[in-house]
Amino acid sequence: MTTRSASLTGAREATPTGRDEVVAAILDSAADMFAERGPAAASIRDIAARAHVNHGLVFRHFGTKEQLVAAVLDHLAANTSALAEAEASPAEIDAATARHLRVIARALLDGYAVGQLQSSFPAAARLLDGLRPQHDNEESARLGAANAIALLLGWQLFEPFVRSATGLTDLPREKLRQTIFAEMGRLAQPH
């Protein structure tokens, strides 16, 4: 049987302390909630409760909901990029990418100007850096990157539907992943 004091101690252990821990807890909680239900359906109070902080701290560290959305987008972009640079496992990178893309999609559907709110795009920059030598001009490289990103985003968001609609429900996940990346490479080439 858990005593009242034991449960209070457990709650205290889960409570972040110090600016860095509080900010990290808010960003992670907001990212999870935005991915689950979108920014419009995630209240500041709900985000704070999940992060185990007072809702006033969300306003103190991030300001408005729009500023929090911007911070989450940048946080997810940096996290995904750091995993790629550290050569993390494909499963870790895929999970981080999926989370980021879900937040992007839900924020867009909620009317947020994601392209303006997110201030840095390290994955797109890395892709462009790899494509520039293969293209005659900057516009061609940017279009190649845009096409590859659009394909990845489409698969990430609509995979269950696309698999069912095309009869690919039994295709192994790894084979699909390889096919998607091969097609991204083809789309990114000069035309």
From TrEMBL:
Coiled-coil stretches: none
InterPro entries, alphabetized: DNA-bd_HTH_TetR-type_CS, Homeodomain-like_sf, HTH-type_TetR-like_transc_reg, HTH_TetR
Annotated keywords: DNA-binding
PROSITE patterns according to UniProt: HTH_TETR_1, HTH_TETR_2
Domain HTH tetR-type: 20-80
Single GO MF descriptor: DNA-binding transcription factor activity
A Pfam short name: TetR_N
DNA-binding region residue numbers: 43-62
Record-given protein name: TetR family transcriptional regulator
Record organism: Mycobacterium sherrisii
